[in-house]
Amino acid sequence: MKNTGTCPKCASHDLLRIPGTIGHGGSGNNIQVGWWIFSGVMVTRFVCATCGFSEEWIESPADIERLRKKFGSG
Q1: Which candidate in 1, 29, 34, 47 could, as Cys together with 39 as Cys, close a disulfide (CB 3.0–4.6 Å)?
Q2: Predicted TM-score of the model (pTM)
Q3: Do the domain assignments include residue 9?
């Protein structure tokens, strides 16, 4: 959806982009990579407003590298 602008389940173009957040105690849509509250990597959601299908993406190449360092390559 992020790359095509089309829902792969229903072919709708009515998509929502919901940015990742980091809240109190590490809450929000993120992946923690350290002990500090703001050390999380933001996870952006793309949601089809027609059928509800969703995808999650790490949009920052620097954040992808932080995840690779923390969790390994596979």
Answers
A1: 34
A2: 0.82
A3: no
